[in-house]
């Protein structure tokens, strides 16, 4: 298995991340953040800050950097300092630029802000009473026509067994290793911006719109990104402010968020509350499913965490179904996409409820899931293009020793041991992408697209599919990524990059071969007028062959370039698409301390064709560890005044190596060419889906205690 191409560069410190770029003459920007949750800024006294050593500029809503609000495929992006409204504690309200980082930071501390404070809403529980409809997420009801039920309530009345419970999940922070940063360098009217993101061409378009310049004038560079998963989807505050301040000052500006600032000046995952009702017959066949969800959002209502729509609307076959989604706007930091938005917290509720139903029925939880396996999303005619979820469970059960599980768990010395399972699903999607291939006279090829590799392994995958498409060894392929000057690639988000970019590489590969054979048979070419074929880097005609490098040299050319563009198309009218998986978790709960340790875990996944098993495995392991983190560790705590009580790495709990067991990953490998010609379905996000429920289900198996919120703490198990 090919190792990650950029691995050695990353572990030896040679990979240059955004803030590693040092340009002569660089000055430093530091954010000023609000210290109230809600209100209006009445005054900002910047006199002391402006006269502090080294200070070049102090920007506030009273003396602002002009920026427009851009809109991308991810929606509107909030732009800092444009008005005096404060809607959460820790909101960027000022930007100080100085000759050194320390001078900027010290001067930022001298800014005195006066507020007209208004009462802030920071409690999710209190806000539930004023929940609002979720934009873009309609209430949906599917009723079984055959049985003639008139309402979902009637369907539940007709169900011999009903479980109904409320589950909740905590707010989580995007704590990627690389904090958000930007280095902005203007040369004349052109901006080069080094900043981590999930799609350099999208960020360039955002910045151009914000700055009011032509997109061709903005060059975004991000060859390496230290983690993203939704947290770097939208253009960040440092990118906006560094670019605008650099233009105003005529100096390169570097701005890096501190870890504490990452907790509020970016965005995280919403907290959710979910009411799930399941109605079934005594054999475990679902009759009715109802899933009502509430999620927190910021005052601008900028994001909905779609838990009901992400799970119950898709996962199980049920004749009657009702889902709803509400939002609870609060004076808290913004919410946004985070690894499996919707499915991650949604699966905690749905898959806990399924486990509760299994207990109620006295049925094996895998058996119950298999019984309600769907061949299409409920109420839809379009069948899954490929689904091997049952096989994931069969394989997993055998490998994990599921047969040894008893309904009461078991004990091992002072430990209560239990096993739990859950389904993992995440839609298989694709976005538009363009890839360029340049064949060079030195017998090598460059495969390039703008996008980003936020640690997923996309660069390595591009080289593999490039080599395959051009029928060349991998060592003759140079992949390029993370530069908005390259052909507009996909977004590294939505678990789409391999399917989107891979398909475009294949199309570009075909175009490259067509171009070569046309060149070889053209007038004045070595095989003029002949029938030319291509294989493994060579062109053939009449029993003779030349390499493509020889051809280009014979024609006096250094290279030949083509592009391939792919986008979702007709397949969407024919099938439904999803990746699937089965999560197995074993926990040990200590009899006296009540601490929960995950002792074993296994995920078996159906993600179509696996391009590189080593990278795919590590991607899924990362997701599964994220799931443990959600189940047992992570929770942003908001104080009454809106300040985050644990907005730093000293107090925000994350798992460390000692918390994580061997994480076993297995695949069933069925290429899904109905979805795209590469046959790959997404696997970036699905690893985290279902894990928290599997942990909670295992805790119940071990202890008999059902915990309906995450993270599960010692106090829950006393
Ligand atoms: Mo992902 S949450 O689509 O980066």
TrEMBL record:
UniProt superkingdom: Bacteria
Q: Which Pfam families match?
A: Ald_Xan_dh_C (PF01315), MoCoBD_1 (PF02738), MoCoBD_2 (PF20256)
Q: Which UniProt keywords apply?
A: Molybdenum, Oxidoreductase
The record's annotation in InterPro entries points to: Ald_Oxase/Xan_DH_a/b, Ald_Oxase/Xan_DH_a/b_sf, Ald_Oxase/xanthine_DH-like, AldOxase/xan_DH_MoCoBD1, AldOxase/xan_DH_MoCoBD2, AldOxase/xan_DH_Mopterin-bd_sf
Q: Domain Aldehyde oxidase/xanthine dehydrogenase a/b hammerhead spans what residues?
A: 12-119
Q: What is this protein called?
A: Xanthine dehydrogenase family protein molybdopterin-binding subunit
Q: Which organism is it from?
A: Saccharopolyspora ipomoeae
């Amino acid at each position: 298995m090919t190792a990650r191409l950029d691995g050695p560069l990353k572990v030896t410190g040679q990979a240059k991340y955004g803030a590693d770029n040092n340009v002569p003459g660089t000055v430093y920007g530091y954010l000023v953040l609000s210290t109230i949750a809600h209100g209006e800024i009445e005054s900002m006294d910047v006199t002391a800050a402006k006269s502090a050593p080294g200070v070049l500029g102090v920007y506030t809503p009273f003396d602002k950097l002009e920026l427009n609000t851009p809109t991308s495929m991810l929606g509107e992006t909030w732009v800092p300092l444009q008005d005096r409204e404060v809607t959460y504690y820790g909101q960027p309200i000022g930007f100080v630029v100085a000759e050194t980082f320390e001078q900027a930071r010290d001067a930022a501390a001298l800014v005195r802000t006066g507020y007209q404070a208004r009462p802030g809403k920071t409690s999710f529980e209190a806000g539930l009473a004023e929940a609002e409809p979720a934009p873009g997420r309609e209430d949906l009801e599917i009723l079984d026509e055959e049985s003639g039920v008139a309402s979902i309530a009637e369907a539940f009345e007709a169900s011999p067994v009903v479980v109904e419970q409320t589950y909740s999940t905590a707010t989580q922070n995007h704590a990627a290793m690389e904090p958000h940063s930007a280095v902005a360098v203007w040369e004349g009217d052109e901006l080069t911006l080094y900043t981590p993101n999930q799609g350099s061409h999208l960020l360039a378009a955002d910045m151009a719109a914000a700055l009011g310049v032509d997109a061709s004038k903005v060059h975004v560079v991000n060859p390496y990104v230290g983690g993203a998963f939704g947290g770097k989807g939208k253009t960040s505050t440092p990118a906006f402010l560094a670019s605008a301040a650099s233009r105003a000052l005529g100096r390169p500006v570097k701005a890096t968020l501190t870890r504490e600032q990452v907790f509020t000046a970016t965005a995280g995952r919403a907290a959710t509350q979910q009411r799930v009702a399941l109605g079934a017959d005594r054999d475990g066949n679902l009759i009715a499913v109802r899933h009502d969800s509430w999620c927190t959002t910021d005052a601008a209502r900028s994001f909905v965490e779609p838990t009901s729509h992400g799970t119950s609307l898709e996962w199980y076959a049920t004749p009657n179904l009702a889902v709803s989604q509400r939002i609870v706007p609060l004076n808290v930091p913004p919410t946004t996409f985070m690894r499996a938005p919707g499915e991650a917290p949604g699966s905690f509720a749905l898959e806990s409820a399924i486990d509760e139903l299994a207990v109620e029925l006295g049925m094996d939880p895998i058996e119950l899931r298999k019984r309600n396996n769907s061949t299409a999303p409920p109420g839809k005619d379009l069948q899954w293009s490929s689904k091997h979820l049952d096989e994931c469970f069969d394989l997993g059960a055998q490998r994990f020793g599921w047969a040894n599980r008893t309904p009461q768990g078991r004990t091992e010395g002072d430990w209560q041991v239990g096993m739990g399972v859950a389904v993992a699903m995440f839609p298989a999607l694709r976005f538009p992408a363009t890839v360029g291939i340049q064949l060079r006279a030195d017998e090598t090829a460059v495969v390039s697209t703008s996008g980003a590799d936020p640690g997923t392994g996309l660069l390595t995958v591009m080289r593999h599919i490039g080599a395959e498409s051009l029928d060349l060894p991998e060592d003759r392929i140079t992949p390029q990524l993370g530069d908005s000057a390259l052909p507009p690639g996909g977004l590294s988000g939505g678990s789409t990059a391999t399917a989107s970019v891979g398909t475009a590489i294949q199309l570009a590969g075909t175009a490259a071969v067509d171009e070569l054979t046309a060149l070889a048979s053209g007038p004045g070419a070595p095989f003029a007028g002949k029938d030319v074929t291509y294989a493994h880097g060579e062109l053939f005609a009449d029993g003779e062959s030349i390499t493509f490098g020889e051809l280009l040299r014979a024609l006096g050319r250094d290279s030949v370039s083509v592009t391939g563009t792919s986008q979702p198309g007709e397949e969407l009218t024919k099938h439904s698409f999803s990746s699937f998986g089965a999560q197995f978790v074993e926990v040990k709960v200590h009899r006296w301390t009540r601490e929960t340790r995950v002792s074993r875990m296994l995920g078996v996944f159906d993600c179509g064709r696996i391009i590189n098993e080593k990278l795919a495995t590590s991607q899924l392991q990362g997701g599964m560890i994220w799931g443990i983190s959600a189940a047992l560790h992570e929770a942003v705590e908001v104080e009454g005044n809106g300040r985050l009580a644990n907005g730093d790495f000293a107090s925000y709990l994350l798992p460390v190596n000692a918390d994580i067991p061997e994480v076993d990953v297995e695949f069933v490998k069925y290429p899904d060419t109905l979805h795209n010609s590469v046959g790959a379905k997404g696997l970036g996000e699905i690893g985290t889906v279902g894990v928290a429920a599997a942990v909670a289900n295992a805790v119940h198996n071990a202890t008999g205690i059902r915990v309906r919120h995450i993270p599960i703490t010692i106090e829950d198990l006393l």
